[in-house]
Every structure is written in C-alpha cells, then in structure tokens.
Amino acid sequence: MTRAEHLHGETFHGREGQVENAFRYGVDYVIVDPEACEGPRLFSRNRANLTSLHDADHGGAPGQGRGLAWLREVLAAHGLEACDGRVLLLAQPRVLGHVFNPVSFWLCHDREGGLRAVVAEVSNTYGDRHSYLVHHPDQRPIGPQDRLEARKIFHVSPFLPIEGGYAFRFDIRPGRIGIWIDYRSQKGRLFATLTGPRRPLSSRGILAMCLRRPFGSRRVLGLIYWQALKLRLKGAGWHVRPEPPAEPSCRWRGCRSTCMRRNSTSTATACRWPRSARCWPGCGWSIWCRTRFSAGSPTLARRLMAAAETRARELGIRVLRLDTNSALPEAVALYRRDGWTGIPRFNDDPYPDLFFEKTL
Description:
Layout: E1 2-3, E2 5-17, E3 21-32, E4 37-38, E5 43-45, E6 51-53, H1 68-77, E7 87-91, E8 94-95, E9 103-109, E10 115-123, E11 129-135, E12 148-151, E13 165-172, E14 176-185, E15 188-200, H2 203-212, H3 217-233, E16 249-253, E17 258-260, E18 270-274, E19 285-289, H4 291-296, H5 298-314, E20 319-324, H6 329-337, E21 341-342, E22 354-359
Parallel strand pairs: 1-4, 5-6, 11-16
Antiparallel strand pairs: 2-3, 2-15, 3-7, 6-8, 7-9, 9-10, 10-11, 12-13, 13-14, 14-15, 17-18, 18-19, 20-22, 21-22
C-alpha cells in the first residue's frame, strides 16, 4: 500500500507577445497510486470527505472518467510495453466535493522506477478535456532535461489560438517535482511551471491547506477568470471556442534536444532538435534560427548544421526534414548549398512556406 503525498506547489504563468502578462500562485496537488493508496483521515478515494480523489474525475470526460482502467487501455493501444511499473496520478483533489483541474498528470514508470511516459489531462472552463500522451520514440526513460513535444490541438484559453505546440519537461524526484510547459506559436509564447516539494499527505497538512487556500479549486477558477479579465482589459484578442477534438487523447513522441548557442549584441540564439520521423507525423527535423544568425555568421551556421546532422546520425535518423519561411533568404540559401531538396508541405504549421528534405 502506497501512502498519498502532498505537493505543496507553486505555479507560474508568463505570457509573451503583443500582450504580456505574468502571475505566480501557490497550489496544492496530491500524488496517489490509483491501485493501492492509503491516506489520512481527512482524505478519501472515491467517497466524500473534506478532500478526496475520484476516478470519475480522471481518465475520460470530466465526471465520467474511468481512472486507471482508462489509462491502461491508452498505454496498451499505443504499444507502451515499457510502462510496466507503478503509475502515479498528480492532481488537485476535491475540496468539499468540488474540483477543477486545469491539468493533471499520469506518471507512468517502468519496474525500475524510471519515468517512461506521461499523460497530461488538460481541461478548459467550457467542460471539455483532451489528453496528451508524450514519451520517447524508443520508450527510454524520460530525464530531467528531456523535452517532449506536442502540437496544440485543443482549445484551452480564448486568448490563445489553436496553433503552435508545447514542449514538456519533467523532473520527478522522490522529494520534489518540477514540470515545465513551454507553449509557442507564431503569435507569442506562454511559459507555465508547476514545482514544489513532495511530502506525506497528513490531516494536519490538509487542514493547513484548507486554511491557506480555503476555497480549493473554486479559488483556481476565480483566479482564471481574474487573469482573463486582466488580459481582456489589456486588449488581448479573443478566439471563439471551436469544437473539441474528436479523439479524447493523442500521442506525441519526444526527443533529447541538441542545442548550440551563440549570444552577443548582434547574434541571436539558434537551436536544432533532431527527432525520429515518428515523433511528429511526416517530420524528422525541427529548426529554429533567427535570420541574423545565418546572415551575420554563415560559418557558425554551417557548423550548427553539421553538428546537428551528426547528432541525428547518432540517433539513427537517416532522413531529415525542416521547414522555413521565404522571408529568410539567407537560411534558404544555406539549406540549398548544403544539399537540402525542396519537397511538398508536410505539416500544418501556418508560419513556414518552404519545406526541405535531406538524406544522410
């Protein structure tokens, strides 16, 4: 029997772009083993209490979830045989029967305790939910510095479009948890974090939590609407809620990033992430490079290309693809000189209009 834990956490959200905004709040999560969990007197599983965690709140539509049974089906459907160990659910609990989880996490381990996959259950205030399954293509353990990428397909905030993608990073330790989510699109960036120490969940800790944040997830909803009002007053654009994705979950496979940086007053940072073509359907390569980097230092740009291609070979990748924009002529010329061949569009990212492929 595993004892429930308490994440005395802090969340930070920072928005960049035409309208900037940032906030930092304290938040309380519980960490439970859905198969075998015991808790203090003031915490229950699937029954009423001051605080509780119910299967109906997770693993499916809000209020209609099936908990761990749903997760096992998802893992089996995607052939994740490496996830043969303990599963932990990181979520905000019900407080006096009410809960709203903007995001919860299923942490899937192997028998040796290595983290192999994560399911992020994302919910919006309209009552919709979508789950992102992320893992490495070869199902190797997820390390603290590994970035797992996912294309955004679910409407979360009316102030953000359904475009671009997320980069997740997970640092799950026995005494502490850190989760970082970096969302980027053509129109801006949102960086969100959840960090804090892990402690045994106790009735004393629950009482302190309720005194510190007495309204539980009602407070979370109130803060969401407060930040929405601030964004509206700042002039942030409004996006009408579309229909949610037909599939309740989707899978994205991540990678370990390879990055070269040069910083000065005239040179930006450039990074490349090689990844298997299975990571993102039809895409074997991702590049981000500022124009001034290519134009101001072509030799360094070629070194970046060569180093990243070497890394791709080490990962067993033989066909690379990248996309760019015709407004970056220096980058386009560099790719063509280095043997990249133009191909038809292979993704739905609205920013690029030129697509290239290279066989190593």
